[in-house]
Amino acid sequence: MLDQEWIKLILQAKHLGLTIEEIREFLYKEQESKTKKTMNLSVGNTQKSRV
């Protein structure tokens, strides 16, 4: 089952004129950004614990 809030957000984006591809690209970039931040935090914590 799909999350109703996600459905609402997607419909709002489409109403604003965004294409499905633009929505996918945005979500992909956001996920990629969060992954990089998490990796940077993990590396930073590892380096600090070695000092």
UniProtKB/TrEMBL annotation:
GO biological process terms, semicolon-separated: regulation of DNA-templated transcription
Give the InterPro entries listed for this entry: SinR/SinI_dimer_dom, SinR/SinI_dimer_dom_sf
Record-annotated Sin domain positions: 1-31
- Record-level Gene Ontology MF annotations: protein dimerization activity
Q: What is this protein called?
A: Anti-repressor SinI
